[in-house]
Amino acid sequence: MIVCYCCSRSGLPAALSALEDGGMDDVIVREVPCAGSVEQWEVLRSFRQGAEGVLIVGCLLENCAHHYGSEVAARRSAVLEGTVQDVGLAKGRVAMVHLAEHQAARFRRAVEEMRATIREQGGQA
């Protein structure tokens, strides 16, 4: 299972469009007002609840509705990558993707990359 925290303005529309195309039964989409609002405890809770990977999906840096939300999210996801390694998960289980609302194909590619990383590490995704 891959949990995706999606910005309501860009990530969510792209994710929902990708989900409509099918083949994403292992993806759970959680809407957030801004990718920068995703807290460390939320990501860690997702792993405790069975997620094998977490994507944080935010606006393109130059188009962030909250001005710096995507930058905050990118820094936070880098820190989270180290944190999940500290608790025993392999590298690559947390990723950040910046996209526009019409970029469902980019969302799908990010999910496929996460799946590939999980499989390489012996996961089920």
Low-pLDDT segments, ≥5 res: none
Strand order, sheet with most strands: 2-1-3-4
Our Rg estimate from Cα atoms comes to 13 Å
CATH architecture: 3-Layer(aba) Sandwich
The number of helices is 4
Helix-strand makeup class: alpha/beta
Helical percent range? 40-55%
CATH class: Alpha Beta
Q: What is the number of independent domains?
A: 1
Distance between the termini: 6 Å
The rough form would be described as globular
Strand content: 15-25%
| Quantity of strands, as a count | 4
Mean pLDDT: 86
Largest sheet: 4 strands, parallel
Describe the structure using short key phrases.
single chain; 125 residues; alpha/beta; Rossmann fold; 4-stranded parallel β-sheet; 4 helices; 18% strand; globular
Please describe the topology of this protein:
Elements: E1 2-7, H1 11-20, E2 27-32, H2 40-48, E3 53-58, H3 69-86, E4 94-98, H4 104-120
Parallel strand pairs: 1-2, 1-3, 3-4
Q: What does the model show?
A:
- The structure is a single chain.
- This protein has 125 residues and is an alpha/beta fold.
- It has a single domain, classed as 3-Layer(aba) Sandwich (Rossmann fold), CATH 3.40.50.
- 43% of the residues lie in helices and 18% in strands.
- It is built from four helices and four strands, in the order βαβαβαβα.
- Strands 2-1-3-4 form a four-stranded parallel sheet, with helices on both faces.
- α1 crosses α4.
- The relative contact order is 0.23.
